[in-house]
Amino acid sequence: MPYGRNILARMQMKLFRPLLALTVLAAAIAGPAAAQTADQAIFGVWRNPKNSVHVDVRPCAAGACGVVVWANADAQADARKGGTENLIGLQLFRNFNQQANGRWRGKVFVPDLNATFSGSAELIDRDHLRARGCLFANVLCKAQVWVRVAPPLG
């Protein structure tokens, strides 16, 4: 019987080696593509929790930037009260750079307060983004979950 086990073990190794080689090859090919997709996953049009503002996040010279492409009447009125005449076309997310942990960090402009804060963005999944803004380094912070409504425009 030991002879039979030896044959079985050799057959398993013959099947295992090509499978292992294919797995390593697939990982080598998919690795850079997966990393590129992860880097670009933040790009697209996102809406805030109240669905009052839509922001197109796309690559810019500083990393990633987000521009308002749609806002309801209430959001536009709030922005005007804060001193921002035109909300549509306004850059809300500025100089966002991807960190080693996959989180993005940059500046967030809040039109109704007419102020800029430190911010971060982190994908929860493909269609949900946790956006966070802080008055001071991780003090007096507010987080929201934004929802993807479209791929990047243009």
Automatic annotation (TrEMBL):
Top-level taxon of the source organism: Bacteria
Residue ranges of domain DUF2147 in the record: 44-148
Positions of transmembrane segments: none
InterPro entries: DUF2147
Signal peptide: 1-35
Gene3D superfamilies associated with the record: 2.40.128.520
Keyword Signal tagged: yes
Name of protein: DUF2147 domain-containing protein
Source organism per UniProt: Phenylobacterium zucineum (strain HLK1)
Lineage: Bacteria, Pseudomonadati, Pseudomonadota, Alphaproteobacteria, Caulobacterales
